[in-house]
């Protein structure tokens, strides 16, 4: 297995400014020390409630937001240190698909123009070659070349997401960060788009970082999953291991909300008390302690680190910490 992406201790903080002088009065730690590796050809899921930092993680990897610290190594290069020209070349290899395809497609442009744009920006081919490529890609995502002269509003939500996916594919990327690509769609359409993405993964040999807000959407799609809470990864495992043996109390709660078709294993729904604390005012100790049903005294002072509990499973929780040697 080859590593295509390695994220080391990624931190993305946003300053909180106060008063007339706009002095920095603290930081929102949107991403606070996130590390993971993604293998070539794999689907790596990042799951957590809104505000947990998963979108910021995705955007920081692509340098759409400049991270405060840490490394993002894509195919051996630390992209946080590249100059603009090198970054521009790299942008072809890493693309993003956003949650809301309507907001991400220019309403004033015809689909033909929307799809041609990345080719133009990167100086690809002649007018005719670009046209052919655009026609080819629109069919690849299940639409028709006769629809190219329409505007985004003339399509349904699912079709718009197909267009956004086609645009992401124009430059033959290696990695796609999919930021909740089906969350805004009707449930009946969601599986169509997921199936399309799965087919494309094969034919284009893609690697996905797939961001989702619950564990049900990615259940059949991901190979490995990281669960995020307040800017940190609290658990990371192979899909099988995570779904059958969740360890972190937060993952257990998230998983208890996933409908379980197995009559042998009815799970009780775990309802978490309280709200997610503001990332501007991070709890001391374990970030989850204010809502954790298992919290002990030390959870309020000591921050657990993400520790390997078996070869394919890591968790950040004092309940699983190996005893000090
Ligand atoms: Fe809960 Fe403590 Fe584990 Fe945090 S470290 S998840 S508060 S038991
Ligand atoms: Mg988001």
Automatic annotation (TrEMBL):
SUPFAM superfamilies: P-loop containing nucleoside triphosphate hydrolases. InterPro entries: AAA+_ATPase (IPR003593), ABC_transp_ATP-bind (IPR050319), ABC_transporter-like_ATP-bd (IPR003439), ABC_transporter-like_CS (IPR017871), Oligopep_ABC_C (IPR013563), P-loop_NTPase (IPR027417). Keywords: ATP-binding, Nucleotide-binding, Transport. Belongs to the ABC transporter superfamily. It comes from Paenibacillus sambharensis. The keyword Cytoplasm does not apply. GO terms for biological process: peptide transport; transmembrane transport. This is Dipeptide/oligopeptide/nickel ABC transporter ATP-binding protein. The keyword Transport applies. Pfam families: ABC_tran, oligo_HPY. Residues 16-255 form the ABC transporter domain. One of its GO terms (molecular function) is ATP binding.
């Amino acid at each position: 297995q080859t590593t295509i992406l390695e994220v080391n201790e990624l931190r993305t903080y946003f300053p909180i400014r106060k008063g007339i002088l706009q002095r920095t009065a603290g930081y929102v730690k949107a991403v606070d020390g996130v590390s993971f590796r993604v293998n070539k050809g794999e689907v790596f899921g990042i799951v957590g409630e809104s505000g947990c930092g998963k979108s910021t993680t995705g955007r920081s990897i692509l340098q759409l937001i400049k991270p405060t610290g840490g490394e993002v190594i894509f195919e051996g290069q630390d992209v946080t240190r590249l100059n603009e020209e090198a970054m521009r070349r790299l942008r072809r290899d890493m693309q993003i698909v956003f949650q809301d395809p309507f907001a991400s497609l220019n309403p004033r442009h015809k689909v033909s123009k929307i799809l041609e744009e990345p080719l133009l920006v990167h100086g690809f081919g002649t007018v005719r070659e670009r046209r052919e490529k655009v026609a080819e890609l629109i069919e690849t995502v299940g639409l028709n070349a006769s629809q190219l002269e329409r505007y985004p509003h003339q399509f349904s939500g699912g079709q718009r997401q197909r267009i956004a996916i086609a645009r992401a594919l124009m430059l033959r990327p290696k990695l796609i960060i999919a930021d909740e690509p089906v969350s805004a769609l009707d449930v009946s359409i969601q599986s169509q788009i997921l199936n399309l993405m799965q087919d494309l993964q094969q034919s284009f040999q893609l690697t996905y970082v797939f961001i989702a807000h619950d564990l049900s959407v990615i259940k059949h799609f991901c190979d490995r999953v990281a669960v995020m809470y307040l800017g940190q990864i609290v658990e990371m495992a192979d899909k099988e291991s995570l779904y059958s043996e969740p360890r972190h109390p937060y993952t257990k709660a998230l998983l208890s909300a996933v409908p379980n078709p197995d009559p042998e294993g009815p799970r009780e729904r775990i309802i978490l008390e309280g709200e997610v604390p503001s990332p501007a005012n991070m709890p001391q100790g374990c970030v989850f302690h204010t809502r954790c049903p298992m919290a002990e005294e030390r959870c309020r002072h000591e921050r657990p680190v993400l520790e390997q509990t078996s070869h394919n499973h890591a968790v950040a929780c004092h309940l699983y910490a190996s005893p000090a040697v």
